[in-house]
Structure formats: C-alpha cells, structure tokens
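sanity check this record:

:::
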Amino acid sequence: MKVFNIAKADKNEIMTEVFKSRAIAVGSPTVSNSILSSVAGWMEFLKQLKFKNKKAAAFGCYGWSGESVKILQEQLKGAGFDVIDENIRSQWNPEEEDFAGIPALVTALIGEEEAEDEEENDSDGKSAKYQCGPCGYIYDPEKGDPDSDIAPGTAFEDLPDDWCCPVCGVSKDMFEKVK
C-alpha cells in the first residue's frame, strides 16, 4: 500500500502506481458541496486513462453536508473502476467508529481477491495468464504472442525483459496475474 497527497505529489508518479495496482482508495473532504480542487483535477486525469478491471473505494470527511464520498464514487465509476459500496464518511474528524470501519472497507476492496490469488497458484506456474493493467490485454501462454515472435507455451516469466504489451506498449511490470 502506498499513500499519496494529491496536492503535493507528482500526478504522474501517482498514476504510475495506479497502473500497477489492483485497487485504489481516494479521499477528500467536502469543500463547498464538492471535493478539493486538487483532487478534482487528478480525478479528471484519472478519467482520461480509462482504466479497466480495477476496484476503488472512496472516503472523506465533512462539516455540514458531506457530498465528497458520493462525488468521488461517481467519478471513479466514470473513470472505469468497479467501485465498492463500503466507504468511510466522517463528520469533522474521524472517530473510533470511523476507524473501526476500515477493515471492512479493505476486505471489500482487496481482501477476498488477495486470498483467492494465494489459493490459485498453478502447480507448475507456467500456465498462468497475465493481464495488462492499463488496457486489459491478457497474455495467454498457450497462445504466446506470434506478432512478437513469442512461441505458444512460453510462460509469462520466460518472456524477454524487453517484451511489451502488444496493444498499448507498456512493459511487463504493468501486468498482473489473472485468477
């Protein structure tokens, strides 16, 4: 897990981490019935990249009205994320009951998926498929990548270091093992 302050961190560095992740959580206080302007600008950048097969959660605090969590959830859906229903919405400062809700949010966001990944390790590891985070392309070892002269039967781990996604061109480190 990595934590970023959107107002201070380089937006490209944050986006690189989003590409590598399976899930994200985005938070903002409610400000004038909306979200922070720095978060709003980053959310627009996120939307332009059209993510697929990633989960997201929203959290925030408020003083009077509390729209930020709903706004974040809608914008994350608009950016292509599968947004979970669980959220943290705190009035003023978070209290013990708000912190107590975090484990349920994390479980809904990544808990079950992480457990399934551990259980579904292939016996030989050679037939596992991998999916490109940015575009959703799935590398299937049974098919290989004929356009890149990768023979059928080539495990993902055995691909050359300079191999890249045939659809969007990102490197191997942007791929995740598929269930």
Remarks:
- Strands lie at 23-27, 55-62, 82-91, 130-132, 138-139, 175-177.
- The mean pLDDT is 86.
